[in-house]
Amino acid sequence: MDIIKLLKKLTIEEKIGQLLQLSPFHFIKDIEVEVFGNVKELGLTEKKIFSAGSVLGIHNAAEMIAVQEKYLRKSTHQIPLIFMADVIHGYETIFPVPLAISSSWNPKLAFDTARVSAIEASSAGIHVTFSPMADLTRDPRWGRVVEGFGEDPYLNAVFTKEMVKGYQQGDISKDENIASCVKHFAAYGAAEGGRDYNTVDVSRLSLHNYYLKGYKAAIDAGAKLIMTSFNVIDGIPATINKHLLRDVLRDLWKFEGLTITDYDSLHQVVPHGNAENDREAAQKGLIAGLDIEMASSCYINYLKMLIENNEVSIELLDEAVLRVLKLKEEIGLFENPYKGASVEKESRIIRSNKHLEISKNVALESAVLLKNDGVLPLSKNKKYALIGPYAETKNTNGPWSWHGKNELNHTLKEKLEEQGIILSLVREVNHINELSNEEQALLKKADAVIFALGENERESGEAHSKVDIKIPRNQEKFIEFAKEQNLDSIIVLYHGRPFDLSNILSTNAILDVYYLGSMANDAIADLLTGLINPSGKLTMSYPRHVGQIPIYYNYLNTGRPKVEGDRNEYVSYYLDELNTPLFPFGYGLSYSKFRYDNLVLSKNEMYFNEEITVSVDVHNESEIGGFETIELYIRDYVASISRPVKELKGFQKIWFAPHQRRTVEFKIKKDSLSYLNAEGLEILEPGRFSIMVGSSSDHLLCLDLICKKEVSL
Ligand code: NOJ
Predict the structure, then answer these.
(1) Would you call 262 a catalytic residue per the annotation?
(2) How deeply is 154 buried, as exposed, middle or buried, from its count of CB atoms within 10 A (0-12, 13-18, 19+)?
(3) How confident is the model over 624-658, as pLDDT tens digits?
């Protein structure tokens, strides 16, 4: 298809239509008969609807085929619709939530989840997924931390990249590949107070060094679209932010794909106070470099008028429309408007055993063992009580799993019993008082109690911010009861954000499972019984108190850092709480026991154009084989800008047989030693660095490295 020629044939209305994205119901309902609220509110006519360029949220192949057929019957130029949807952690086979996936520290698993998602979603006729979410998250009050890969820019970039590769496989024209739309550009995760949609105010240095890294990685991996965020940056909503959309995206990063608003976010620049009305919003959007408008109608209703009045140029419109046509061409829609959609294939492959097995493998590596004083693994010779709101529920899919079916999942009770674990009492209750006297008596007779606790699936995700990040208060009573009765207890924790767990630490063990998807309890039972050794590690710091937020391991030192043990008062600390988190970034236990020693640098001084090797000996001192993630951090002591006390620069997840000792090596090159200035340009400065390797961000061996300017070798 010659898309330039096609563009020339389009009327101005037809061009503007290509920039409109609507929901499937707009096409399915007969609007002449039924003019319902949304259509009226948006000022849409049938003509405008049937000029739209793309669809948001299709449900299955049959629906896709019906919408496309109806649309093409009415279309003059036979330009097919693109179908986009939120396939976030699986389509119908649901995987662990992204925060859990990152806790696996195994990027290959992110690739696998994206592959299965693409295979399933494409069979339903979906061409684009609004994933990955590359927003850096440092505030557990924000409900959307569950959708991201945590607080670290490096790890976030690694996982984001793998997701994009998994969805697209470098060629979106292939039937089982879909295009990736990375979101939410930019810094949506830095919403003040952790309140969703709230103001963001971060410096350009922070943007480039921390917040933008994930989106950039997605674009470098070939992501075809980027979604703007709801928030302002520098006082300008991201959706009409020319600096972000043109200077950063196009000029600095050379992005050639499409930009798209978030839901209604172009219209929302009016309540933001950046445009008088939808007309001005449309003008600012196109000038800023915004291509597709999702679910509001500023472009469709006002762009024509703005162009005719010379308030925006037709060239800007053509540029945006051409990008839409280009994506349609790349997907192959002009040859086959129904690309991928197949009712037969959909029913055959969706939630297949093969896909479920992959989901279970991801789940097995995503759970994090936070505490264990020896009560885990469970023993088949003991009697356990299983109590709490997650004891018998199948609701383990978590937020953004609109196509997943919780009812097909298994319960923890079923899965533990299948493994021969004796459960003397099982009760799905929210409070210890809900147990009858006889049940309490039974509970006391158990050898230990498993508490399946956590927050409701709907308490995290979009629009679900919280100020209280403790375990729901009535659930604390379970732990108090266990303590009073001297009962051993194990908590299995289902939730969508880091919690403040300080008031339930008297428990003997905590297995943190977030929402692990379709095979959650299958995997959890394997981990509890020791069939599989837990290997996840945290990717967000767990605070001791909500008042410590934002809390993250890669903070700046300040001019008055707190030194543990030093009694000086005039330093950066709290009167009533420690600075450190309860469970740090990178932390996670295993049934094995690993010891690190013998950290060695191949050279103590390096020129920037050299590469050195850092090695460390890791020893599994236990009888149990297991995976260990070895983490590499670097500190740059003196630079033109203040640098974090440590930054993750590499990691390796490796299997250790019982008692195995291995020497693990990392390479250090200049890209691990540089930072970005406020313009996003790479800066390398010589001086003293620390190289740190260990099992967690607070458990590291450390050596100094002197770096010098490049010389010709
Ligand atoms: C709003 C959410 O912020 C975004 O992540 C999602 O992709 C869109 N709605 C479309 O559903």
Answers:
(1) yes
(2) buried
(3) 999 999 999 999 999 999 999 999 999 999 999 99
